[in-house]
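step=encode ok
step=design start
structure_in=
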């Protein structure tokens, strides 16, 4: 089979770590991507909260805009992680079916 069986390369969904994890655990995923995205979301929450507090103290009228920006900053990595997990599950099922 070779390369035509493996999903095409993607930094979040399919990379060399995914192959290693699948060989070891039978699950297609990348721990580095999961940790990176989760950490960015948590870091974004902390930074957004501090930024909103600072903006509220200086320019209360800008708080709604800061809140929306903070929500986007926090939720984007989590949405990418959700999509990555869906892709990982699809790849796991496909490869397991082909392998076994």
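sequence_out=
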């Amino acid at each position: 089979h070779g390369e035509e069986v493996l999903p095409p390369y993607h930094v979040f969904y399919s990379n060399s770590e995914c192959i290693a994890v699948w060989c070891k655990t039978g699950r297609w995923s990348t721990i580095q991507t999961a940790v990176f995205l989760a950490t960015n979301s948590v870091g974004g929450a902390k930074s957004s909260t501090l930024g909103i507090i600072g903006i509220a103290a200086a320019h209360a009228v800008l708080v709604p805009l800061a809140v929306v920006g903070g929500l986007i900053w926090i939720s984007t990595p989590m949405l990418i992680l959700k999509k990555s997990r869906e892709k990982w599950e699809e790849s796991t099922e496909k490869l397991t079916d082909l392998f076994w």
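step=design ok
step=annotate ok -> Residues 63-99 form the longest helix (37 residues).
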